[in-house]
Design goal:
The protein is α+β, with helices and mostly antiparallel strands. 57% of the residues lie in helices and 9% in strands.
């Protein structure tokens, strides 16, 4: 059976939703930040990170790889969109946005989450966060402009890339980054949160 290891309100939220959408039998185990550094966990994922997916004795790490694997197990469930199974361009477009969320956006949060690891000086930490805030607002502005034309990143239907952008938009609340000027993004956030799989995982992970 598939098993997902996750820390709530991290990027592991995304494959958790993919599993909900897939209809596959799975379990999800919440782990603490101390657990992911334990010898037992490191034996499965030497990087000591989440998400981690196991399928029997086989372990897979890295978000995009896990999502791809779930999609391959349930290709008709619309993880990359309702037309993606038979449309390589639709599938590629969803993956393009997934890559944007996983690299451009996610990396830009690091100064917020790990400023103290990057520099010792408190003023330098605040400068890092200010730089990150400006970068994130610029990236979310780009997303907001796309959403002025359509409900979701790839068009009229939700994909797993939308879920990644959604949880990252949620992180801005923790970081006190004001995105209120981005009205299309705000409406998108509400649409995605209303998805059955998304709302289920929000509750399971205790985010709402």
């Amino acid at each position: 059976m598939l098993k997902l290891y996750y820390i709530p309100n991290t990027c592991a939220f995304v494959p958790h939703v993919a599993l909900e959408w897939s209809g596959l039998e799975y379990t999800a185990e919440e782990v603490g930040r101390d657990t992911i550094k334990s010898p037992e966990y490191l034996a499965l994922n030497p990087q000591g990170q989440v998400p981690l997916l196991t399928d029997g004795n086989w372990a897979l790490r890295q978000n995009v790889a896990i999502i791809d694997y779930i999609n391959d197990l349930a290709p008709d469930k619309g993880i990359y969109g309702v037309t993606a199974q038979n449309d390589p361009k639709a599938r590629a477009l969803a993956r393009q946005w997934l890559a944007f969320a996983n690299s451009d956006l996610h990396m830009s949060f690091k100064p917020y989450f790990y400023a103290a690891r990057m520099v010792d000086d408190e003023k330098a930490q605040e400068n890092l966060k200010a730089y990150a805030s400006a970068a994130l607002k610029n990236l979310f502005s780009f997303v907001d402009n796309i959403l002025a034309q359509q409900d979701y990143l790839t068009g009229d239907n939700i994909t797993i890339a939308d879920v990644y952008i959604f949880i990252e938009a949620h992180w801005t609340k923790r970081c006190n980054i004001d995105l209120s000027a981005y009205h299309n993004l705000s409406k998108f956030y509400q649409r995605v949160s209303a998805d059955t799989g998304v709302s289920t995982v929000l509750k399971v992970q205790g985010i709402i």
